[in-house]
Write a structure and sequence with these properties.
Shape: flat
Helix content: over 70%
Number of strands: 0
Oligomer: single chain
Distance between the termini: 66 Å
Number of helices: 3
Radius of gyration: 21 Å
């Protein structure tokens, strides 16, 4: 238990340092313009992670208490299902954004450059 607490605190401290370092690592106007969108992406991802994992844990605990099995076991199963749900949602989101990016690039090449060469 002590090792997992130490690992959590180390990872959390690293995450906080990364969030604080985003403003300092942006060089020039182009880099500074990217800080806010990256922070939004990170915050939305963390919020989705927390919502799905905690929601899975609460749902697992609720289902375990209704069916008469161990609440701790049901909560752990719910946390695991929430983590898997986060991974699936993340994978689907990345796939959708990738496909939309491909379509945007194809549109910009075909409609903007080919049809309007000026």
């Amino acid at each position: 238990m002590r090792d997992s607490r130490h690992a959590f605190l180390t990872n959390f401290a690293g995450f906080v340092l990364v969030l604080h370092a985003t403003g300092t690592s942006a060089s020039g106007r182009e880099g500074a313009a990217m800080v806010e969108p990256v922070l939004w992406i990170v915050l939305i991802t963390v919020a989705a992670f927390v919502a799905l994992v905690i929601g899975g844990g609460v749902l697992g605990t609720f289902r375990a208490s209704r069916s008469g099995e161990s609440i701790l076991k049901g909560g752990a199963r719910g946390l695991l299902k929430g983590l898997v749900a986060f991974l699936v949602v993340s994978a689907v989101s990345v796939a959708v954004v990738t496909i939309l990016g491909f379509l945007w690039i194809a549109y910009s090449f075909l409609c903007v450059l080919v049809l309007n060469p000026s």
